[in-house]
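quick one before i forget lol
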Amino acid sequence: MIDPPRPEVKDAIMKCRSAGIRVIMVTGDNPMTAKAIADQVGISSKEAIAGKDLMLMTDYELELKLRSVNVFARINPEGKHRIVSLLRDKGEVVAVTGDGVNDAPALKKAHIGVAMGISGTDVSKEASDMILVDDNFSTIVNAIETGRGVFDNIKKFVKYLLSANIGEVLTIFFALVANLPLPLTALHILWINLVTDGLPAVALGLDPPQSGIMERKPRKATDKVLSKLALQRLVVYGTAMALLGVFMFSQYLSDGAEFVHAQTAVFTFLVLFQMSLVFSIRNTTEPFYKGMFSNKLLLLGVGSSVVLQLLVVYNPTMQGFFGTAPLSISDWATISWFLLVGLAVMELYKLVAYRKQED
């Protein structure tokens, strides 16, 4: 007689190992059976500790065993609860899966209790934080991958919006310091925020998970959304955007361009700079074009923002409302040049400051 593990479990265990997630088997089965199943699915353990032996151990002795032993058999509810408690006391983030009444104490004690939706008892479901509707361990691993992607997207969203807003504020500040007229009106700033904080920012929050996301070590529970490296990045990107914008504005004025014309050029540059920023900020260590077409919604959002900006520049009604002037081919060449310089600064900063680090 045999009750083999599901075929997808072994791959899920390997995925956990590469992601820095430790899997411990705590079962009511015979120790020899538990050890055999653990070997089949790739859970490495020096031995399988039986419940009767666990009850004779002090907390210190059990803590030493927990450093290398990943299989526990014939464990009663008190023993399961004790294992989870010791892991938590060591600072580990613990998730527990179970389906029976005897699993309820451990499910309740864990940071995340996951009950089986099909075979699970009502008691185990009540004690849990989540219910697994398909009773499949690999679904938990897939959920971890999705969760890492969601957290990454939250960071991207925040970094993009903050760096863009820093750039807008510094553009006004640097213009005042340089004793220049204001390069943007209040209406221009509102428009920039509307077209950049709209579809592009929302689409950035729906980015698919990056390749290799399950090969990273788990982040610490105390880690902040924005690290020191990330904050430095925001300042560098925002400063680059502002300096380039103010320099271009001063060049237009010194060349005798009309004030409205110079304003329109800078206004358009800042919108397009943020469109390039959204691609650069997606990856910390990889170039901006890596996976550029993996998020179709982001491409749609950026394209929509560019079209709206063109309407502001060339539509007579919009020109009167926003106080803009049509741009020539020469203007677009100048804007494109400054955009390339800005993109080069962002990409070089990633290359030099980050290497293989993550923020």
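fyi The chain has two domains: 7-140, 150-353.
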